[in-house]
Amino acid sequence: MIKQFIAAFIFLFITVGISAQEKRLSKEEAVRLTLENNFGIKVAGNQVKIADNNQGVLNSGYLPSLTGTAGANYSELNSTTAYPDQFNTDGTPREDLEIDHAESQSFNGGLSLDYTLFDGLGRLYNYKRLKEQYQLTELQARETIENTLLQLFSIYFEVARLTENENVFKEALAISTDRITRAEYSFEYGQNTKLDILNAQVDVTNDSINLLNTKQQLANTKRDLNVIVNQSLSEKFQVDTIVRFVPRLQLDELIGQAKENNVTILQTERNLAINEYDIKVNSSGYLPTIGLTGSYGWNLNQSAPNSFLPGQVIPGSNRSSLTLGLGASLTWNLFDGGTTTTLVRNSKIAYENQELMQEQVAIEVDRDILNALASYENLLTIYQIQEQNVLTNENNFERSKEQFQLGRITSIEFRQAQINLLNAQTNKNLAKYDAKLAELQLLQLTGQLLNVEF
User: Fold this and answer.
1) Are the beta carbons of 340 and 126 closer than 8 angstroms?
2) What angle do CA 264, 270, 272 make, to 5 degrees?
3) For helices 122-188 and 411-446, what crossing angle results, to 10°?
4) Angstrom distance (rounded) from CA 172 to CA 157
5) What pLDDT digit, counting tens, does each position of 195-235 carry?
6) Is the C-alpha dihedral spanning 112, 115, 119, 122 positive or negative?
7) β-bridge partners, 70
8) What is the pLDDT of residues 106-123, one digit of tens each?
9) For residue 115, what are the CA distances in angstroms to 38, 58, 292, 330?
10) Which of 28, 182, 236, 332 is deepest in the core (most CB within 10 A)?
């Protein structure tokens, strides 16, 4: 009964996941999907579009403003004019004068044009400032992309590591299962005791649990990867477990160009330029503003009949007019209570602070590169050691297997050799992807993360 349960258990874990053909998600495809679909990258792209709109001529202040106005009025008059105690020339009483439905209308329309010829160069420097702001936003979007790609590969490599570990645990489970069969045959022929069978069954259970936990971790991590690339959480795929490292000569060359390409350093340069334009924009308050104005207007009045003269109705009239006006203005704020002076002084202090920030960032980037390089070299060395350790443990395991089959070592000694190999293989998998991720972090600091093959 126990044997049948174990066999079914093994069959479940070995066959699940391979019954359906899963597509392969390469590193290049994962990067493409992330750049196209990731929510954070999309938001960063929209921020760049906003900055692009802001730097356009429509937001520069160089274009004139044109305003149109129009209006209409309507009125209707019903009036009665009485002449008490007044008589006509023939002696008859004068009749009341009535005006019914006397309509009057008025219409008007106009255009006014305002244009600033000179504003102390404020709009010029503000326009240049918006250009720098656009470049800064592009750098911020690039930083978002780099951070997202690092997050992508940290998850992608975790999927790869768990995939390789899954294969290791499957192999360990198959070996332990084979031990049960051999132990049962040996027990039937009186070559060992029931204890060997029980030990093998315990090892199968432990290996099955390890495989179960790894499969669960792998499934969870694949869902994390689906979130990053923004595809269905139920999407099934396999990842590439091959890792290629950048040649050391190329890496040294990229490190030498880090100050010209590091995204953080480039952002401080843009911020410094923006602060410089802030000083010039605020200084424009010391200079006058010269503007031009123009206007064009049309009016039409249609008056109603009236009875201003006794006994007579004066018919209504139409009156229209066209007006054209041009003007120029000069405004010079000779003293604004010190507001402009305060703004200029504060913007100069902000510029000095940005200079200090730039120096600090340069030192921190140098430190981060040295730390990242040392970490990468250390992890790469560990990976190389673990590779050799796997070869040593494989050789030890094969010799132990031979000795175990000849009955020269116990099942406990054989199991220890198997565990040593298992640990060496999983440690090598961890070291491999840790070293590659450290390399990518170093490439980000050099500003070349988006320019290398993954």
Assistant:
1) no
2) 105
3) 170
4) 22
5) 888 888 999 999 999 999 999 999 999 999 999 999 999 99
6) positive
7) 109
8) 899 999 999 999 999 999
9) 45, 14, 5, 12
10) 182
